[in-house]
Amino acid sequence: MTTYPWEELRERAQEAMSFAYAPYSNYPVGAAALVDDGRIVTGCNVENAAYGVTLCAECGLVSELIRSGGGKLVAFVCVNGNGDLIVPCGRCRQLLYEHGGNALVVLMPNGPMTMRQVLPQAFGPADLEEVKE
Ligand code: THU
Prior knowledge:
- By secondary structure, the chain is an alpha+beta fold.
- The chain is 32% helix and 20% strand.
- Tetrahydrodeoxyuridine (THU) binds at residues 22, 25, 27, 29, 45, 47, 54, 56-58, 78, 88-89, 92.
């Protein structure tokens, strides 16, 4: 059984959460993930006066992943303003799936779960291949 640096990821998520811009919901979120080359990438939520344009913490995390060289997400954590673990929202599960696949391990409030469990039968890059010319 692989071990993951959950404590470090949680600390990094909490640090990222402290930079959140969440004046509308007052619900800051921080996320952190281990990449397959050992890097840790993080993100925080960034809200907007046009509420629907809000960027979840996972959006910032994926953006940092790509900006800092890409790679595959291996383990993921997100926390709220109390430092409690939270579940990633549905849209963000899709974002995470794109860059972690079924094997990505997400630390849910009740313990680690794979992406295969968190987003079963996900739509992904392989589905697009089926109609490529
Ligand atoms: N939020 C995230 O950043 N990630 C999630 O997975 C759940 C929700 C943010 C969006 C919004 O700024 C605030 O939490 C309240 O919904």
